[in-house]
Write a structure and sequence with these properties.
The protein is an alpha+beta fold and 696 residues long. The chain is built from 23 helices and 20 strands. The N terminus is likely disordered.
Length: 696
């Protein structure tokens, strides 16, 4: 035994040594969790002097009494290589737990477990967002329509779209001067394939950025007319963490009928205190803001992007035409005077089965069935001529062949098709059939690039167009945008495509809200009354087109006809003295006005009254089948108001013969008192049929 030591003292020293070893191991593990140590390696805690003294005493006692308790494996007093292995194992286990925790968060967010650089909050979010834009809208559409990048900061999204995808971009950034060339070299080039990166770094700048990207230093939306025109010229508006501009992007895009995609970030509840979710709660979180923005339009959708942080994108193609899910959707679109696309509506037509194979036009079959028919053809310069269909088909694919249009297929060879359900309540063509007049049912046939300039349909009618084969690009403008499509003299632009018109003469065309649609083969597009539109064929395209209207369009038709009637009366006022000078009656002059109006507008006021009487008096309802009572009441009110306007301004100009049609013969019987009385009686009859329902 050591001099002066007892057995209890020796046990106490051994217990103290073992306890210090455990305490030191716990401190080492805590240091590992805190990340202490040099170079990421755990550093042993410094042993105090008294611990070293106890250690020597313990060693001496072991030499006397044998080894004491075995130190734990994690003790810093074991062999050095054992301690290093233990530390490496602990570190690997900690990393594994962190990876598992991150994977669990990733799975909870609906993200791929193999998403590249997941967790790099700012490194790759622009690249992920650009990938979303390309996948959602398609690179061809992005190139065709252009992108407006709002509050884009350094312009990484603009640089990626312009340099990597050749997309025309406008960057709106009011807060700082943006050097896009620096951004493309610093942020885009390092992630390009080696050969492209070397080329860009050697050049020191991007030619595509110079050619395709424009920076607008302005708040959004810009107040300057020229800058606003640049923004309006882009068909897709985007914002990645655009802060206070996020809601403005959504609202302005919906108003202008633009496609948009935004990733909301900051909410600013104190600055936007009036925002509220659908259930009335104030918008205070990013999740609330996403729901608030998505609720602004039924067409919006939300998606999660593959980066951490605020990664929910709200997108909507407000420039797209709605696709019908069934006849009820078609009827509602007709009532609302909104365009709608009906897919595969012509798939079973006899024309489709006979004239196409595998989606392509079978020229010999069209020649067999229609080759001897004579049809109008419009040349590229607008000159009109006629030729046999067989002759036109031989030059269909030649450049500058022209456009075969307005061929009355139903009159020449009926039975090739049937109007789609919901578009078949055709007052106009039923009237033409009863009268034995030329109808408004046409066949169109043109090669790739043939087009119809911007126009509104005859008589302010609706129209529908069904592609038998080929596709059509449509630009559709609602009636509210009409003034933006004119120059100072009121002349309409001919071609609305960017670069195809004089921007100085037509400065507001780019600002006009426009619906764009590519109509595929075998589909039908409904074009509402008073919507101006332009059409370009994609490939050889054969289509069936109807001008038509139903009860809901009667107010628009009457507005057009009344304008034409007043213009005709003003032009013919000088003839009034000639008629009276040769002893003619006033009624003869009024009949003459109706005759000229019918020749110029295809209908006159007497025709309008006769048509309304034949439709209204023969049916119980005027709105489409399945319409709500308020829709029926609204449609009847519209027809009634139009006819009351006729009674107020044109009652003395109505002429009908004994069969109830306008008298065409140029004799005294046509403008006799009895003919005028029959016109007045027809107007009274149709008003009487409408009044009870209106009063209810």
């Amino acid at each position: 035994e050591a001099p002066g030591s007892t057995g209890f003292d020796i046990l106490l020293l051994k217990a103290s040594n073992f306890g210090n070893q455990r305490t030191r191991a716990s401190e080492d593990f805590a240091a590992l969790r805190r990340g202490n140590g040099r170079g990421g390696q755990l550093q042993p805690a410094k042993k105090p002097q008294d611990d070293r003294l106890i250690g020597r005493q313990t060693t001496d006692m072991n030499s006397v009494h044998g080894p004491g308790p075995t130190p734990p494996a994690h003790s810093s007093y074991g062999a050095p290589e054992d301690a290093d292995d233990a530390r490496d194992s602990k570190k690997a286990a900690l990393k594994a737990r962190r990876r598992a925790s991150k994977a669990a968060r990733r799975a909870a967010a609906g993200l791929s477990a193999r998403a590249p650089r997941f967790g790099a909050r700012n490194e790759n979010r622009a690249a992920v967002f650009v990938k979303f834009l390309v996948e959602t809208f398609g690179v061809e559409r992005l190139r065709r329509e252009g992108v407006c990048d709002v509050a884009g900061g350094r312009g990484e999204i603009t640089c990626r779209l312009a340099h990597c995808h050749e997309v025309r971009c406008v960057l709106v950034e009011p807060r700082e001067a943006v050097d896009l060339q620096a951004t493309v070299l610093k942020r885009v080039a390092p992630r390009l394939p080696a050969r492209y990166r070397r080329h860009l770094e050697e050049a020191g700048r991007s030619e595509r950025i110079e050619r395709l990207a424009t920076v607008v230093e302005s708040p959004f939306p810009p107040r300057d007319a020229a800058l606003a025109a640049l923004v309006a010229g882009c068909g897709i508006w985007v914002g990645l963490h655009a802060d206070g501009a996020t809601e403005a992007i959504v609202e302005e895009a919906l108003r202008a009928r633009k496609a948009f995609a935004v990733v909301p970030c900051c909410v600013f509840p104190r600055f936007f205190a009036t925002r509220a979710t659908e259930d009335g709660r104030p918008v205070r979180t990013t999740a609330d803001l996403v729901s608030y923005l998505a609720a602004k339009d039924a067409r919006t959708c939300t998606t999660t992007l593959a980066f951490e942080g605020k990664n929910r994108v709200v997108s909507c193609d407000a420039s797209a035409v709605r696709v019908a899910a069934g006849p009820a959707d078609v009827s509602s679109a007709v009532l609302a005077n909104e365009p709608i696309l009906i897919e595969d509506s012509a798939a079973t037509w006899r024309a489709t089965r006979s004239w196409t194979a595998d989606g392509k036009l079978v020229v010999q079959n069209v020649q067999r069935d229609l080759g001897d028919c004579v049809a109008p053809v419009v040349a590229g310069d607008g000159a009109r001529t006629t030729m046999r269909v067989r002759e036109f088909l031989t030059t269909l694919h030649d450049e500058g062949t022209g456009y075969l249009k307005d061929f009355h297929l139903h009159c020449a060879s009926p039975g090739w098709y049937a109007p789609p359900p919901g578009l078949d309540d055709d007052w106009l063509n039923r009237f033409c059939d009863r009268e034995g007049r030329d109808d408004f049912r046409f066949l169109y046939l043109g090669g790739d690039g043939s087009r119809t300039p911007l126009h509104a349909d005859v008589l302010s009618s609706h129209s529908w167009s069904a592609n038998i084969c080929g596709a059509k690009e449509w630009w559709l403008f609602p009636p509210s945008e009409t003034s933006k499509l004119q120059d100072a003299a009121g002349v309409y632009v001919d071609d609305v495509r960017l670069g195809f018109y004089d921007a100085e003469r037509f400065p507001r065309v780019a600002d006009a809200a426009c619906l764009r649609v590519t109509q595929p083969p075998r589909s039908t597009l409904f074009v509402p009354s008073d919507w101006r539109h332009m059409v370009v064929n994609v490939g050889a395209t054969l289509s069936i087109n109807h001008n038509w209207f139903e009860a809901g369009a009667i107010p628009n038709v009457w507005r057009y006809l009344d304008t034409e009637a007043r213009a005709t009366a003003a032009e013919l006022e000088a003839c009034r003295a000639d008629v009276e000078g040769r002893g003619g009656e006033l009624s003869e002059f009024l009949w003459l006005r109706e005759r000229v109006l019918r020749a110029s507008a295809r209908l006159n006021v007497s025709d309008f009254v006769a048509m309304c009487r034949s439709e209204v008096c023969a049916r119980d309802t005027l709105a489409p089948a399945g319409s709500a009572p308020e829709d029926e009441r609204r449609v009847r009110d519209g027809v009634s108001l139009a006819l009351r306007a006729v009674a107020a301004d044109h009652a003395g100009s109505l002429f009908l013969d004994e069969s109830g049609t306008w008298p065409r013969d140029e004799d005294a019987a046509s403008w006799s008192r009895s003919a005028r009385d029959r016109g007045t009686a027809a107007l009274a009859e149709v008003l009487a049929a409408l009044e009870p329902e209106v009063l209810l």
